[in-house]
Fold:
Amino acid sequence: DAGVTQSPTHLIKTRGQQVTLRCSPKSGHDTVSWYQQALGQGPQFIFQYYEEEERQRGNFPDRFSGHQFPNYSSELNVNALLLGDSALYLCASSPRQGSGAFFGQGTRLTVV
Amino acid sequence: AQKVTQAQTEISVVEKEDVTLDCVYETRDTTYYLFWYKQPPSGELVFLIRRNSFDEQNEISGRYSWNFQKSTSSFNFTITASQVVDSAVYFCALSEANTDKLIFGTGTRLQVFP
Structure:
């Protein structure tokens, strides 16, 4: 049983560009959440998708957007990249509320 | 507002020592969940335990044990007879009952030396 998978694992982008990160949830999980983890910090909640809709959103600007597909996989898009967007982006999936989330290995984004 | 505090930034121990990682949380909800995750250098967050606010029983899993005390809003994690493979960053997290949004602490880096 594959766990949560994310792609790519590493990415380097130039300031001002746009980026798309991808996530496939663990089998049987229908809820996908995205987190941003800056170096030396705990993960920060970006948003959560359930039934192809954004269910909750953290304190992130509109440059951060997402999508969930019918097969529950998800994308995170970031527009107009800033140097401060450099971080590890983690995807998490869960089967139901309060059950705890299972995380992927993350995508390390570097903005230069 | 919800908040998780992990006051210990870094802990270093020698193999076979016992070590306790502290976690203090704040929430106004009566129903909530507490979690511990391990993050090795590879970056993936590994789920260790989930506890709901109505279950204050301590839990033991092998060398790991957790002490949940609502009276002090603490959910501490103890590793007995630590091993080098335990070296990682450990995060405590909190979520409300009707959401999967996790609020993380800043983490405690544990280094276990041989």
